[in-house]
Fold:
Amino acid sequence: MSSTIWSVDEHLDDILATVRPLEPIELQLPDAQGCVLVKDVVVGVALPPFDNSSMDGYAVRIADVEGASEEFPAVLTVIGDVAAGSAGLADGQVVGPGQAARIMTGAPLPAGAEAVVPVEWTDGGTGEGPAATMRAHSDAPEGATGEVRVHRSVEAGAHVRERGSDVKPGDLALRAGSIVGPPQIGLLAAIGCATVVVRPRPRVVVLSTGSELVQPGEELTGGQIYDSNSFALTAAARDAGAIAYRVGAVTDDAETLRATIEDQLIRADVIVTTGGVSVGAYDVVKEALSSVGDEDEPGSGIDFRKLAMQPGKPQGFGSIGPDHTPLLALPGNPVSSYVSFELFVRPAIRALMGLPDLHRPTVRAVLSVDKALTSPAGRRQFLRGTYDEEAGTVTPVGGSGSHLIAALAQADALIVLPEDTTSAEPGTETDVILLR
Structure:
């Protein structure tokens, strides 16, 4: 372990200087969800690709319905139907003077028509006259609906979605660096993209260490506790955008831990361990990994450090295996491990994704407390809190103990007290890291 006391910023800079964005790959759209675009996507086809109706109704000429009303409806001859997915009217028909075509939502506007009258503005072809006569005969020609009475006039282009009104060929659909979410996948599909070039989601393997750890659902015996860290950090990795794999807790045995980590290298872009990085007799992460790669893998190895922060003083970072897979060793106390993840692992995951914005948002807020908060000199303290955006205040939740996981579950922010602050009075303005 290094005897030097590292600052939070120095440790983070070391991590980000080592982590490089993953190589781009081409993926089918369903597999690209959550990934980051490497190249700009330019529209190749207009969207929509043709003028089409936004309503069920009748395609008409403007002049034919001018002045139409309930008392004096415009009576038009219906020359056919235009369904969604069709090419238009049959036999190349054109909507001429005094004519209309019944049209469905999404169907192409037929030649000659200038607007669509919603069916609610008509009698739906149910009035008396030729329309009723034609419906009375089963041998009436297909699509021949007789007449329709239109009760309102419309302007040109009414209820018509014009070709290219969403995007046009040559438009920029999505910029490089965009995260591919459901709306982006919808747009890509709509413009005909079947695949896209992205940086893949990083694969993060999370494992906790400690012979005292038992899986939730099992019975506790003397001296045992439930393994919460691996569950919380796996969820946090997924929340950051990674594909996360949780490994069951490993007992306090250096060889077992080393073998477990080596087995996981095949599916890991990052390995995160929690526990076993302090100075105790059974801190097996240091024992298992301190000499990894000294001779066989030049440039690899894990450096264990003390950081000027609370909680989370003991940390480890380095690389392991033939591909120099980054490994971040976090402390075992629940709050320490989670705070460490937010400060160091989350930015590393987002750097692997190729995202420019690596960090949670930070705002300034006023401390809402009854008495001054204390902080150890020379350490950057991170306290759990709840942030009130409207009031611009933040209120601490729970104490400073690194085991208080219930308080962490209630918090939505981290209150940051700088290294040179030993006391923060009520009303003091400070940095707040927003967790949600």
Q: What stands out?
A: The chain is about 20% helix and 30% strand. The first helix runs from residue 8 to 18.
